Hints:
This protein is mainly beta. It is globular, with a radius of gyration of 21 Å. A hairpin with a 5-residue loop joins strand 5 and strand 6 (102-113). It has one domain (2-399): 5 Propeller (Tachylectin-2, Chain A), CATH 2.115.10. The termini are far apart. 5% of the residues lie in helices and 45% in strands. Residues 61, 386-389 line the site of one 2-acetamido-2-deoxy-beta-D-glucopyranose. Residues 34, 82-83, 167 line the site of one 2-acetamido-2-deoxy-beta-D-glucopyranose.
Amino acid sequence: MIFSTLVLLCAVALAGAQTPAASQSFPIPSILTSHVPTRPPYLKTPVKRPFTLSTVVDWGRMNDWAQVYNIYRDGGGSCSLYNRTFWVYCDTTAYSKTTGKIVGAASNSMTIAMDFSHPNRLKDFTMIPSTGWKPAIPFTDYEASFSGNVSSRYALWTYTNCVQLSETRAMHFFLVQKFYNSYSSIQYGNTMAIYTMDPVTNQITIERPEQYWYLNTTYAYGSFASVVVNNVAYLYGIDTSYSGNYDVHLAKVPVGYETNRNYYRYYDASTGGFSYTMPVPTARRQSSAVIQGTEPFSTGTVFWSDYHNAFLLVFFNNWVDSTFRVLSAPSPIGPWNVSNTVLYHSTPGPRQTNGFNYGGNASPIYYQQPGQVAGKDLLLQYTYQNTSNRYAKALHVTFT
Length: 400
Ligand SMILES: *[C@@H]1O[C@H](CO)[C@@H](O)[C@H](O)[C@H]1NC(C)=O
Ligand SMILES: *[C@@H]1O[C@H](CO)[C@@H](O)[C@H](O)[C@H]1NC(C)=O
Ligand SMILES: *[C@@H]1O[C@H](CO)[C@@H](O)[C@H](O)[C@H]1NC(C)=O
Ligand SMILES: *[C@@H]1O[C@H](CO)[C@@H](O)[C@H](O)[C@H]1NC(C)=O
Ligand SMILES: *[C@@H]1O[C@H](CO)[C@@H](O)[C@H](O)[C@H]1NC(C)=O
């Protein structure tokens, strides 16, 4: 009797503390990049500043210049926790600096910004000798059983920023893809990664609460962009199946409830409100989309700019023209001005005939230091392709 009560108590305790589908921790180098987070107002008047640039400084390749290996990577995004700035990249390969031969690869990797005034300086804390080639975002045991098989493997790739939820916690969305050979893959859905930074032990823990957060039968909310406003996380997902990447759909969840599906609500532009009912993507749902682009979207970042007095969406379209464009809105739900103002045309790499840049994103936190007006300066990041490989490049742009 006593025994069975105990068992019952344990079962209740376990149900409360949800077991993640995958979890792992890494020690992180103690490198601080402090900034003052913006406090976006909920509703504001329209844009006051033009989207013209006064200066562009090309910082070239973002890299850990002291790494043991020569590292190539693509995609990626950043966020800050406890004054540390993390970058997460997709497919990462390590080459020996002496032989030039590939020594290891992982589906994704993490690194930390060393110095906001030198954005091309990173410090890798995965893909180093002490971690080997395990991906930063852990595979489930089932996914991991396919690792190392190039013709049949899982990939966890992100092309967007993580979003800070509290001083020590962030969320990030990754597409879950399975390759059946070098050319064909199926995207099964997306997954949520939760980052928890422990400033005492200097560790970051990366958890995936479930293998999939959204299956591919719904929009991949969060995979395009995320922004937190007044303790609410807004998660944007592109309709890739029916809109040709023109429509963006929106979910929201109160910060602190992000791992509980019951708290998610979905935007419907036709009513102008959110409901617990998700629009079902069995056809194009233009009337429920939060943004109907006049160009198709590929990757981007939504953030509040004090300088422009507006939410900005800085993005790449999917015409592979290597050009950063910007949309603006007075609130995260719009109305979005879809005039696609060109910000900057980045120089494509020499790879074959189509060395286009991809994975364009903005990192506003680099220029949110005391004495700066947030949004006046941005770090723009993208993947560059030279003839042999792909790597991240950074631009520091300043608005007029
Ligand atoms: C981060 O840095 C800023 C500016 O130096 C400081 O005001 C703030 O307290 C720091 N935050 C944390 C969590 O250490
Ligand atoms: C890799 O996966 C393919 C397809 O599932 C399978 O036929 C093959 O045996 C696997 N190879 C190895 C080395 O596991
Ligand atoms: C979605 O996932 C299912 C398996 O769950 C797969 O059969 C289907 O091909 C996927 N759809 C797309 C559009 O990738
Ligand atoms: C939309 O943005 C364009 C370009 O920045 C601007 O010229 C136009 O006035 C804006 N429209 C509205 C309605 O604010
Ligand atoms: C590609 O870029 C890397 C990094 O700048 C450089 O070391 C390498 O030589 C380049 N390869 C070619 C073929 O241009």
